[in-house]
Amino acid sequence: MGYHRAGFAVDGCDIADRPRYPFAYHRGDALDYLAGLIASGEIERYTLVHASPPCQAGCAVTVGTNASRGWGGTHVDLVAPTRELLDTSGLPYVIEQPNGRAAIRKDLTLCGEMFGLGVLRHRNFELGRWATTKPAHSRHRGYVRGHRHGIRREGPYVAAYGKGGGKATVPEMQDAMDITWTDVHEELTEAIPPAYTRWIGTAFMTARQEVLA
Hints:
By secondary structure, the protein is of the alpha/beta class. 32% of the residues lie in helices and 15% in strands. It has a 4-stranded mixed sheet, covered by helices on one side. It has a two-stranded parallel ribbon with strand order 1-2.
């Protein structure tokens, strides 16, 4: 949605059925889909590729709390094969991952406070074949509401992941992230606020115009 608001025509792909996805959509393995676009030459129709590989292998909750308590299972890390295909595509690209141990360059780190949102939701972005100025990380105004390590805190942000322990309800997540097109809990907990990709899309268009000028 953020890229759409920045002026892009959006074409999405995911392995799961997403009937609420508001743009052109292709269901299937995203790496197979991208490889097919490259092999057929259709990739030339595109200007920018954004990839959000599954984050469970390296995200903070997996390598921190879950690992320390023996929770969860094993997860496949698809960052490297995703980057390899993106490099092959010849197009500028963005790879998004949450905080943790994901093996990406943190060319950008965006936070909900930068956009006045009701979530912190830090996300890191590696930029391929283009660059932009890294924005300052705004000071947080307080805690994320909910229980953590046995302590209940109140604060101006909600926790848009999991259930229980004071975590956000579906309406709270929708409001905090400015997401109106889905009310599916799983989709909301995995989403990034459109303000992030609108910022990235605008920065890309600006950088592209400067190169062409």
